[in-house]
């Protein structure tokens, strides 16, 4: 009599639902015998290529160099940096700012105040500026002054003391703009 409830409980555990989920995996149809033979015969047999890790790294560096040299968008950005950054630098004052974290709407009032004083921000990636400045008189400026890869913004204005005073007064009230030396 005692065995009957145990067996009954045992059957429920084997046949009943357990707490574990049962996953049904999709298995594709293997196809007919002709299809399986065709796949087995036409499957390419390529031996694995064993490449030295150093050689793989050198190949990747060479591919990256070629990709960088033949990139038309990068060439376009370099030309744009020469026109919009290096040419205005000839006759204008440039203040270099490092931007700390801020929301996009926080800088709009600052840009508006500076725009009313005829000053505007420009920004370019540092690698683009370095390439654009090669062979110009600003090469040393980009090499030594802009040495870190922190995204900077550049404020352009006329080189008068009043404009410099206005720019510093407007930007010193912003907690997210740091004037670099």
TrEMBL record:
| Family recorded in the similarity comment | Belongs to the universal ribosomal protein uL10 family.
| Protein name, per record | SJCHGC09520 protein
């Amino acid at each position: 009599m005692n065995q009957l409830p145990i067996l009954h409980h045992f059957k429920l555990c084997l046949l009943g639902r357990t707490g574990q989920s049962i996953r049904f995996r999709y298995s594709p149809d293997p196809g007919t015998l002709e299809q399986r033979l065709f796949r087995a015969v036409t499957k390419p047999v390529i031996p694995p290529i064993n490449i030295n890790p150093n050689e793989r790294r050198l190949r990747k560096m060479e591919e990256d160099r070629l990709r960088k040299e033949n990139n038309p968008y990068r060439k376009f950005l370099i030309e744009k940096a020469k026109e919009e950054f290096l040419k205005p630098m000839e006759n204008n004052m440039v203040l270099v700012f490092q931007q700390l974290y801020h929301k996009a709407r926080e800088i709009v009032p600052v840009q508006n105040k500076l725009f009313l004083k005829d000053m505007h921000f420009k920004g370019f990636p540092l690698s683009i500026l370095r390439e654009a400045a090669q062979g110009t008189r600003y090469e040393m400026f980009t090499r030594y002054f802009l040495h870190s890869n922190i995204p900077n913004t550049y404020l352009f204005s006329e080189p008068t003391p009043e404009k410099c005073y206005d720019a510093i007064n407007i930007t010193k009230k912003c907690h997210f703009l740091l004037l670099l030396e």
